[in-house]
Every structure is written in C-alpha cells, then in structure tokens.
Amino acid sequence: MSAPTDAQRMEKIVSLCKRRGFIFQSSEIYGGLNGAWDYGALGVELKRNLKNYWWRVMVHERDDVVGMDGAILTHPEVLKASGHVEGFSDPMIDCRTCKAHLRADQLVEKKGVKQCPNCGGKDFTEARQFNLMFETHVGAAADESSIAYLRPETAQSIFVQFKNILEVSRKKLPFGIAQIGKAFRNEINPRNFTFRSREFEQMELEYFCRPEQGMELLEYWKEERLKFYDNVGISRTNLHVLNVPDAERAFYSKGTYDIEYDFPFGRQELEGVAYRTDYDLSQHQKASGKSLEYFDEETKERIIPHVVEPSAGVDRTVLAMICEAYAEDQAPSDKGQMESRIVLRLHPRMAPVKCAIFPLLKNKEPLVAKAKEIVALLRPDMTVFYDESGAIGRRYRRQDEIGTPFGVTIDFETLGEKDPALRDTVTLRDRDSMKQERVAIQDLPAMLRERIR
Ligand code: GAP
To answer: Smaller CB count within 10 Å for the chain: N or C?
Structure first.
C-alpha cells in the first residue's frame, strides 16, 4: 500500500478528531459556524494539559513571572493606542466569478497568472483593507459611544495593567506577566481545520526588561520556547525558526522569530517571539496620560521598559501535537495476527487519558472488583478510563487511537490463582512499544506519576 499523501493524512486526522471527540465544528447541527470549533471530552483534556504545562513552566517554576487574566471586552482607546483600530487589517479582494472574499496573499499563481483558489477565476476587485477586529456594543445604546472590541490578542491587557501589577508584585526588571486566554479575529478565510480560526486561545508572556537586555532576551526566549515544544512531544526536526526579515517585521520590532511547524498542509507559524521595544508601553502612556514608567532603585533612573514577547497559539499547538502524534502501524490481534492500528503517540504528559484499566473478563466479579479498586487508587493522580467490554486487543486499539500511554490489565494472576507470588500484580502495557511488564499494584501510582509529570 502506498504511503498516504499529506492531504489524506490531514483528512484522517480531522476525521479521528471528530470520531473520538477531540474537536467538533461549532454549531454543527445548524450547518456550522465558520472559524469556530468546540472541543469535546478528549480535546478539552488535551488542551488543558497543554495550558497547564505552559503555566507551570512559564509562571510557577519561575521567580520572575506572574500571571494575570484580563477581560475579553476591550475599551476602544486601548486598541486605538496599540494601533489595532487603525492598522489591524488584511488586504481583501473579491473574486468576481464565484464572489468569494479572499485574502490578497492567498491567490494561487499559475504560469504567472493569479487565480482564485476556489474556482480558478482570474477576475478580481481591487484590494481593500479589512479590519480583523470584532466590534460590539456595551450597554443599551448601540452607537459610536458604546463601541467595544473583543480583544484580538491577550497582550494589550498586560500592557494596560503593567503599572498595577508592577506595584503589587514588587518585581524588579527583568520580569514578566503571563496570560492564557481567548482572542478573536474576523479572519477573511478561516482554514486548515483549527489552524486559522476566528475564535482561538493564546498563551502570551510579556517579559519586561532594560533596553540593553532586549536582543539577548530575544535569543533566550526563542531557545526556551523550542525546549517547551520538545517537552510536549513536538520534535525539533519538524520545527523551524524563521528570522523574520526587516521588511516583514512590525516597524517597532527590533527582532522577531517565527517558530514554524511542518503541518501536513505546509510549514506554518506556531508561535512568534518578538522584541517589541518600548512601543506598547509608550503608546499607552501617551494615549492615557498615565505614567507607565519603571523606577530603577539602583540607578535612580525612570525608564519605559522594553519587552520581549513569546506568543503561542493554544489551538495551533494542540493541532501540531495531534499531527505529530498521529501514526499508523501494525499490532497483534487477540489471535496473534498482525493488523493495522491507528495510534496517537502523544507525550504522556499531554495525553487526555493517562491510564486505561481493563479487567480481563467482565463476568468474573473478583477481576472487576480489583479493577475498580485500581481505578480508585489512580484517580486522585491522573485521568483513568475503565473498560470491560470486548476482546482485550480491541480495548487496547480503542485506547491507542486516543493516545492513552498506559494500559493496566487485571488477570487471574492478579488474584493469585496461578502463582501466589503474583497476587496483586498487574500487567502494565506501553502504548508505543506494546511491551508489557508485571507490576505490583501498590507501585503503580508512583511509577505512573513519574512517567506523566
Ligand atoms: N501578541 C502578538 C500576537 O498576537 P500573532 O502572531 O498575531 O501575535 C500569536 O499571534 C499566535 O497566536 C500565533 O503564532 C498563533 O499561534 C496564534 N494565532 C494567531 N491568529 C490565529 C488564528 N486566526 N487562529 C488560531 N491561532 C492564531
């Protein structure tokens, strides 16, 4: 059988996500809302594991970072000062043949002629700027005075709260403020599954520093972020660092790296790490008339701190983890014949279910009782799934497909029926190697905790 193409691989991934309850089209029963996605029982666990791990390494394991959780509804003056009201737009054109609205840079070029990616048409309107922000109204009056925006990035609430957080946390430069939360962009063409959505989540750190530290910290954060991806199971060979050229960087940035991933639909941005200088704080200081300066006790200087920003997408990272993990290989059936299996080789730290518990037979009360005891033993430390239905091979396959790294089987040896020395031991199966080891039940919690932390 020939290897699947990248498009087929992506189709299989999207289908698995729906079939097993990772990701669904939002409002599906009404025809779907383009650019919005709902995460099901497994998707929400995967997403939470990712966010919790980000928070752990970016906030809890550091002395120099504190967290915040800002409002989504944003005062228009914030986004005027940041430049979003004026300039957060993409060039949009319409295809006169099929009437599609298209981002100007998404036309396909064939033999030097630009074509519509939907219908192949070649007749377009002039490009015009389309602002990507979602506008809404706060309160009863729906006029100019009540306009507010759904935030297009989490970063701005960090800049706007900089002074409050500095005063309360009493941090010294360099220090950072981290946030995870929803952001909204009215993308002209949402596409590639969750990759480009209209509602998505970001994990952003604004790391404030003295101006002379900016370039060095840009390198530091790029390396830290690459380590992070390694630690969530995204291999370095599929990641690429693009040093964004001067002409393509925001005018205020002195250096930006895009961390890109080889998705089945092409190499695309996962995260931006940008040295944004003092642009944001200066803009907000000017527009609000409130000082956003930092007083350096040692030098007795007042400065506007510079900032380095690693900004990652939750949904894109979840998608990259799934793409990275998706594999098809061969595994033995209950009769010992090799058959193909789908396996998600998710990092155990990220897997939605950590351990599946299987009594060998569902109609043997002592096996079932022991299995339920093990469920109760492990549950305080990890997500577990109890499954007693079907042949054991089928049960393994169901768990392989959702990335469960460990499977525990309770058999007659567990009951000490064959060899008293094996009483209260179980088999622990590893998803990737499919190897099984015999483990004492009492050792399971510590052993698994160590492998999933
Ligand atoms: N504060 C900087 C900022 O927002 P960005 O490059 O526009 O920078 C950062 O966004 C990250 O947010 C991206 O690298 C990506 O992971 C995620 N992101 C941006 N737009 C997105 C979209 N439409 N859908 C899903 N994720 C998106």
So the answer is: N
